[in-house]
From TrEMBL:
Pfam families: SBP_bac_6 (PF13343). Keywords: Signal. Residues 1-18 form the signal peptide. It comes from the Bacteria. Coiled coil: none annotated. This is Extracellular solute-binding protein. PANTHER family: SPERMIDINE/PUTRESCINE-BINDING PERIPLASMIC PROTEIN (PTHR30222), SPERMIDINE_PUTRESCINE-BINDING PERIPLASMIC PROTEIN (PTHR30222:SF17).
Length: 345
């Protein structure tokens, strides 16, 4: 398909940087774009060594099973799990000059910052909403999240293989916009809705490039998508819309870096990397490459007038379920139930 060809040609056009053996980053695929951490490349002449994962639980299991990296890039819901397992150590914010430029709303949790220190450096945030083929799906269809259970789209839907994102969708679709203190009845209603949606799913996507390929191939017309899947499709001139204002709402998430205990590389380079990420110039690079917002108020100020911000990151007048840390037992319950649903139970 042309999307794959475009991706290959784009990759070939980017200068190759030898991987730095003194810094290993466990990251989502797509975040290895050098412009996002350009100050690190300028300082050391090469990008870090990257190891990739498809979802947060996979990354955690990889580290818990003994994989050694210096930093990892989880989303907010997973930070407590890394802490409880003793896999991370606090950051020394005295070594991070732009720490005070991070928007306080991304640090508003005892999970991230307490009397023991700062455990999480938020860096990026985005939305999860409806991506759809504007030539085959009407605006009326995507005015509601019930498009995912609409029989007209049986076998034409893709959902993320991510328990957090699919439960955010299911809660919103059943009238819940805050996943703290979910009742048993609300959980069951969301689970029932997910089972109904599962009947329409052609495939669960594991990363945004896979989601983009599913849509570009013509197999899928509607997907529950992050910003980056939409960016990839737009770059390939695919007729894609991003509906964040369905009547039941949409979701937001934010992610960042944790400092893994006993990392094998250079601690100095760990701080060089996070400082590069927090440079104001990283905001434009992040938006262009992936469509995400930046945690730094200075970085966001540099892109405030960009059309991509208005399209994919602007504040909304509909319910928004923020994927902030929720109860670990509830999250485990959601994860287990999602696995049952995918297995057909």
């Amino acid at each position: 398909m042309r999307l794959l060809t475009t991706t290959i040609l784009a990759a070939a056009a980017v200068p190759a940087f030898a991987a730095d053996p003194e810094l290993t980053v466990l990251d989502w695929a797509g975040f290895e774009v050098p412009a996002i951490f350009q100050a690190y490349v300028d300082q050391h002449g090469q990008s870090p060594t990257f190891s990739f994962f498809g979802d947060d639980d996979e990354a955690f299991q990889k580290v818990a099973s003994g994989f050694r990296a210096d930093v990892a890039h989880p989303c907010s819901q997973m930070v407590g799990k890394y802490r409880d397992a003793g896999l991370i150590e606090p950051w020394d914010t005295a070594r991070i000059p732009n720490f005070d430029k991070i928007d306080e709303r991304f640090l508003d949790s005892d999970v991230f910052r307490d009397d023991q220190g700062v455990w999480f450096i938020p860096t990026d945030w985005g939305a999860t909403a409806i991506a759809y083929n504007t030539e085959t799906v009407s605006e009326e269809d995507v005015a509601t999240l019930q498009v995912f259970t609409n029989p007209a789209f049986q076998g034409r839907v893709s959902l993320p293989d991510s328990a957090d994102d699919v439960w955010a969708l299911a809660y919103l679709a059943t009238g819940v916009s805050d996943w703290d203190d979910v009742t048993d009845e609300q959980f069951q209603a969301a689970a029932d809705w997910l089972r109904e949606a599962h009947m329409n799913v052609a495939a669960y996507w594991s990363d945004p490039s896979e989601q983009a390929q599913l849509m570009a191939s013509g197999l899928v017309d509607v997907a529950w998508s992050w910003n980056d899947g939409v960016v990839y499709l737009q770059e390939d001139n695919y007729p894609v819309g991003f509906q964040r204002e369905a009547e039941e709402g949409s979701s937001t998430f934010f992610c960042g870096f944790v400092n893994l205990s006993n990392g094998p590389g250079s601690e100095d380079k760990v701080y060089d990397f996070i400082n590069a990420w927090l440079e104001p110039s990283a905001g434009k690079a992040l938006l262009d490459a992936i469509g995400y917002g930046h945690s730094s108020t200075e970085a966001m100020a540099t892109i405030a007038d960009e059309p991509a911000v208005a399209e994919g990151l602007a504040e909304l007048d509909v319910p928004v379920l923020a994927q902030t840390p929720n109860d670990p037992q509830q999250r485990q319950r959601q994860l287990a139930e999602f696995e049952r649903i995918k297995a057909g139970f």
